[in-house]
Specification:
By secondary structure, this protein is an alpha+beta fold. It is built from five helices and 17 strands.
C-alpha cells in the first residue's frame, strides 16, 4: 500500500501536502427517494361447501323479505270500524282504504300491513273530525281495526254561511248542511264577529259559548223556542232571537238568570200579548228594560 493513501472506515483518503481529501457522498434531504411498497392482497380461498351455504342463506333471507313485505299474505284486506257519534263508519273506512293506495317514503306500498302508517291516518282523520277516543290497531296478518268515539255535540256554529257542529270548548267536530239540521237540541249560534275559526277551533272567547248554551237551556225550560243566538261586535252581549218574536239582549257580565227573570216578569205582567210584537228587548242595563 502506498504511503500517501490511507483507508479508514471503508473510505478512501488521499493525502496531498497537508490536506486530506475523501470521496464521501452527500445527499439532499429535500429530494428523498420514495420507497416502493409492494401490496400483497389477501386472497380468500373458500371451499365449495362454504359457497353453497352462503348462497342458500342469501336466498332464504331474500325469500323471507319478499314474503314479509311483498307477498299477498300481508296485504291489507279487512277493515273493522267501530265507533259512536254522527261520523259514518263507512266514511272512516273510505279514508283508510284511500291511504292503502299510497306509498311510505315513496317506496313501500302501504297496502302491506308492515308499511301502513298509523300516524298519518290519525292525522288525516283528526284534520276533519274531532274524537274523544281514536284507536288504530294492526291485526296481523291483514286487518286494520279502528275504534273511535266522536266528541259530543254541544252547539251548531254558523260562520261565513257555513254550519258546524262543535263541542262546549269550541272545537269544531264536523261541518254540516243546514238543510240536514232537523234537531232542536243544540243552540244555533251565529258568529258575526271578525274572529273566525282557526286550526279547527272557534276563535271567539269560549265564555260566550258557555253563556249561549246556558241561555238556550233557560229559554227551553220556559217553553220559549230560540231560533238562534247572535254574537256580534257589541262587547259583552249575546242576542237571543225567539221564534216568531224579536231579539232579547243579554249582558254577559251580569247574572243571566236575573236578566231572564226580568224578561219573564215583563212578558207576563206588562207586555202580555204584545210580547211577540216587539222588535227587541234590552235587559243589559241594571234594573232597566228597554224595548221597541
Amino acid at each position: 500500500m502506498l504511503p500517501n493513501k490511507i483507508i479508514k472506515n471503508n473510505r478512501k483518503y488521499t493525502r496531498k501536502g497537508g490536506m486530506h481529501y475523501s470521496s464521501k457522498d452527500y445527499s439532499n434531504p429535500f429530494f428523498v427517494k420514495k420507497k416502493k411498497f409492494n401490496f400483497n392482497f389477501i386472497k380468500f380461498n373458500f371451499s365449495f361447501r362454504f359457497k353453497v351455504v352462503a348462497v342458500l342463506i342469501f336466498i332464504i333471507i331474500m325469500s323471507l323479505l319478499w314474503f314479509l313485505f311483498y307477498s299477498q299474505f300481508f296485504v291489507i284486506k279487512n277493515f273493522e270500524i267501530e265507533g259512536t257519534g254522527k261520523i259514518d263508519a263507512e266514511t272512516i273506512k273510505k279514508i283508510t282504504e284511500r291511504q292503502t293506495n299510497n306509498k311510505l317514503w315513496l317506496m313501500f306500498p302501504q297496502r302491506n300491513i308492515f308499511f301502513f302508517n298509523k300516524k298519518k291516518l290519525r292525522q288525516n282523520l283528526e284534520s276533519g273530525y274531532s274524537f274523544e277516543v281514536l284507536k288504530i290497531i294492526k291485526n296481523f296478518p291483514s286487518t286494520i281495526k279502528i275504534e273511535y268515539q266522536e266528541k259530543k255535540y254541544a252547539i251548531i256554529w254558523m260562520e261565513n254561511e257555513q254550519y258546524f257542529y262543535a263541542d262546549r270548548e269550541g272545537f269544531i267536530i264536523t261541518e254540516t248542511n243546514p238543510l240536514e239540521i232537523t234537531e232542536k237540541n243544540y243552540p244555533l249560534i251565529y258568529n258575526l264577529t271578525t274572529n273566525k275559526i282557526a286550526n279547527n277551533q272557534i276563535s271567539v272567547d269560549p265564555k260566550y259559548i258557555q253563556d249561549a248554551i246556558y241561555l238556550f237551556d233557560l229559554f227551553k225550560e220556559g217553553d220559549m223556542i230560540t231560533e238562534k243566538l247572535i254574537i256580534d261586535q257589541e262587547v259583552d252581549t249575546i242576542k237571543v232571537k225567539i221564534l216568531e218574536a224579536g231579539e232579547i239582549y243579554f249582558n254577559t257580565n251580569e247574572s243571566l238568570e236575573k236578566q231572564y227573570e226580568k224578561l219573564l216578569i215583563l212578558k207576563s205582567e206588562r207586555l202580555k200579548e204584545d210580547f211577540n210584537k216587539k222588535t227587541y228587548i234590552d235587559l243589559r242595563i241594571g234594573d232597566s228594560i228597554y224595548y221597541r
